[in-house]
Write a structure and sequence with these properties.
alpha+beta, six-stranded mixed sheet, about 20% helix
């Protein structure tokens, strides 16, 4: 099984069952989830957070835009439409696979409506 297959299986299990039961065995015991604000969570903490999010996110539509692998890393870029008229978000997940288990994850989330505002640093300074 390739690293892309492992990540795809983990996400498919989560989406198909609406439960973390199929996801948990695909994570290493020392799994770490890293956030952009430099905080991180353990396997137990992250699974609890995912479990808590499953109910309010039931019905979320996920469109896979890119699924790329390089060595032990897999990158997933998705567009997600939150239920009940919630915003559309762009998400980039980076997964590190070690020994056929997911051992680390990084996640960046941005509401697509805010994308232009977050690019202002890129524009040349006003004269």
């Amino acid at each position: 099984m390739t690293n892309k297959d492992i990540v795809q299986r983990a996400l498919s299990e989560l989406i198909a069952t609406g439960s973390t039961d199929g996801l948990a065995p695909l994570l290493s015991d020392d799994f770490v989830h890293h956030r952009p604000d430099a905080t991180s969570s353990t396997k137990t903490e992250w699974l609890a957070a995912v479990r808590a999010a499953l109910t309010p996110l039931a019905g979320m539509q996920v469109e896979i835009r890119h699924l790329l692998a390089d060595g032990d890393h897999v990158v997933l870029h998705t567009r997600r439409r939150l239920p009940d008229g919630g915003p559309e978000i762009a998400v980039v997940d980076i997964w590190r696979v070690d020994g056929e288990l997911i051992s680390e994850a990084w996640e960046i989330i941005e509401p697509t409506a805010h994308a232009a505002a977050n690019l202002t640093w890129w524009e040349p300074a006003a004269r």
